[in-house]
Amino acid sequence: MNTVLQAQGLGKKYGRRWALSDCTLDVPAGRVVGLVGPNGAGKSTLLHLAVGMLTPTSGSITVLGEPAGTSQRAKVGFVAQDTPTYSRMSVADHLRLGARLNPDWDESIATKRIERLGLDLKQRAGRLSGGQRAQLALTLGISKRPELLVLDEPVAALDPLARREFLQDLMEAVAEQELSVVLSSHLVSDVERSCDFLIVLVDSRVQVSGEIETLLATHYRISGPRRDEKSLPSAQHVISASHTDRQSTLVIRTEQPILDPAWTVSRLSLEDLVLAYMGRPSAPEQNNHRPVLEVQR
Questions:
Q1: Cβ proximity of 93 and 86 under 8 Å
Q2: Domain ranges of the chain
Q3: Distance CA 155, CA 109 (A)
Q4: pLDDT per residue over 165-220, tens digit each?
Q5: Which of 65, 235, 238, 288 is the most exposed place for a label (fewest CB within 10 A)?
Q6: How many Cβ atoms from other residues are within 10 Å of residue 243's Cβ?
Q7: Which is it for the CA torsion 114, 119, 125, 128, positive or negative?
């Protein structure tokens, strides 16, 4: 299977407000995908549609080759933003529940992870630290041996050390189980550390998507004497522009060499790239871009 998630014209509406609009993207298999964007951009809505917790208002979404929320649900692991656990249940209770609900549950993975994390099987989840609850939720998601693991800002409330440990454990699981992962995060540093594919979501629309290495290789910041960006060659697509009386600074996307000697050309960091797309005016015609992950500050 070449893709684990496909959306075509996908939309979700609450009353008169579109939480996600005209979303078309392909998420390749075998990648760790970073989904970034500002609060309210539609990230959680997209992920909830992917795992079958919501139904689309328009368009379609397939996961692992089948409509989201159908028989493929057993092959999808999900860790929500609040890393849900049951406060009155012990760690052992969570593992027993995971084994009962998931036909492909791998007890050895669960046991080894709990031992390595140093969690007391008798400890109630409500008495665990935020980092420990997140690790318990990740253990439950991984131990069902999913083909796709969906993580909705699982480290948002963790301190830097707990966040790093969580992402390290995630990367180990990806390597050991050959997982495909979609990770929503508001921290570009987390995406840069763990992801190889990016999707940027702004104002309920996908702004750009692609391999991070390719995106960084095809985006540039150029600065020089002030000029109208419409005068640029057609192969140079302007993502953002700022001007003073004498100077123009543009972020552009192009696969062609930049030959104009008047421009000073520099590469972008991943954060620069994400912020350039987040700062774009939202317009329906922009959604013709290929899918990109969201980035948040």
A1: yes
A2: 3-209, 212-288
A3: 21
A4: 889 989 988 988 889 999 998 889 889 989 999 999 998 889 999 999 999 999 99
A5: 288
A6: 13
A7: negative
